[in-house]
Specification:
There is one protein chain. The chain is mainly beta and 328 residues long. The protein has two domains: 7-224, Jelly Rolls; 243-327, Jelly Rolls (Sandwich). It has helices spanning 22-25, 63-70, 72-75, 77-83, 108-115, 145-154, 218-224, and strands spanning 7-8, 12-20, 37-43, 45-46, 49-50, 89-96, 102-104, 122-129, 134-139, 161-165, 171-174, 180-182, 186-193, 199-202, 243-249, 254-260, 264-267, 275-281, 283-287, 295-298, 302-305, 311-316, 321-327. A hairpin with a 2-residue loop joins strand 4 (45-46) and strand 5 (49-50).
Length: 328
């Protein structure tokens, strides 16, 4: 019988100047006294924001405490060897009711030298959006450092950024170094390296209640930006009904989408990693051999499947379910 079981965590909610109320109204996060929730950190091992187990006999324990006790059984042997008790990924739901700052994240090398941290490569899966919703990823023309600085100084940076319509089901891979921003009326899931380092480039001339603007990181950003121009920034994929379809893959994480309307069995026997499910549509049951009782996962919830659990059974409870399936 498995000692471990599918783990849920208390969401860590972040109030943001650009946030809204859809994390509460659509994904059932507790609004509390917050006016604008921008992010729900679903599973985090970052210092000061350690996720706490919400279900089962391990409730109340933090993620690093679990890794300390269960080690490779929880995260996978190779992952434990590399990261120790540090959980290597960060999972979020994000809602923008206004523009996020235009920003960039450093790569591992730069983040290590400047901040003694990992870099930040991430990906977005759009859950909901208004018909006119857009986001920024990369440049819309060939670019280099000198050209970028000219546009930055002339106030014409917005003219050379690549805007994309964001439709439900769209995927955008954002490697470290790519300039990006989320626009208004978008609700998405984000999978990223365990890092909270962001260099703000431009914040739409916003000020807070005291007339103060947020800190910019202009000089740091210049050396962090990857100036490569691409013809296509959207990540194409082909859904695979009642099976797993890959939507993003890099050295830091693999993200698939599970779109199912009947019971499916999954074998993780070859995988030496934890698996995380983020429910983006519907309601389903997670079961496994030796599990005392199935664990329900509904839209807006995130569940960690320990590495020792190799056989998983997923059953949709109401029509079609969609889960993001993430592992290393």
């Amino acid at each position: 019988m498995n000692t471990l079981y599918p783990l849920k965590f208390e969401p860590i909610l972040k109030e943001k100047i650009w946030g809204g109320n859809k994390l509460s109204s659509v994904l059932n996060k507790p609004q509390g006294s917050m006016e604008k929730i921008g992010e729900s950190w679903e599973l985090s091992g970052l210092e000061g924001d350690l996720s706490v187990v919400a279900n089962g006999f391990l409730a109340g324990n933090t993620i690093d405490e679990l890794i300390e006790v269960y080690m490779g059984d929880l995260v996978g042997d190779a992952i434990f060897s590399k990261f120790g008790t540090e959980f290597p990924l960060l999972f979020k739901f994000i809602e923008a009711s206004d523009n996020l700052s235009i920003q960039v994240h450093p790569n591992d090398e730069l983040a290590a030298s400047r901040h003694n941290s990992w870099g930040k490569t991430e990906m977005w899966y759009v859950i909901e959006s208004e018909p006119d919703a857009k986001l920024i990823t990369g440049f819309n023309c060939p670019m280099d450092k000198q050209k970028y600085l000219e546009h930055f100084k002339n106030g014409t940076l917005r003219d050379v950024l690549n805007w994309e319509h964001a439709k439900p089901g769209d995927v955008f891979f954002i490697p470290a170094g790519r300039v990006h921003s989320i626009g208004p009326n978008i609700l998405l899931a984000e999978v990223q390296q365990a890092s909270d380092i962001t260099y703000r480039i431009y914040d739409w001339d916003r000020v807070d209640a005291n007339g103060k603007s947020r800190e910019m990181h202009t000089d740091w950003a210049v050396d962090a930006i990857d100036y490569t121009y691409l013809n296509e920034y959207r990540t194409p994929y082909t859904p695979n009904k009642n099976n797993s379809a890959n939507i993003a893959k890099c050295q830091y994480f693999t993200v698939n989408i599970l779109n199912f309307s009947k019971k499916i069995d999954i074998d993780y026997g070859r995988l030496d990693s934890f698996v995380v499910y983020m429910a983006v549509e519907g309601k389903s049951l997670i079961n496994a051999p030796g599990l005392a009782e199935p664990v329900e996962i509904v839209k807006g919830e995130t569940v960690l499947i320990p590495a020792e659990m190799k056989e998983i059974e997923l059953t949709p409870l109401a029509g079609e379910s969609k889960l993001l399936e993430i592992y290393i």
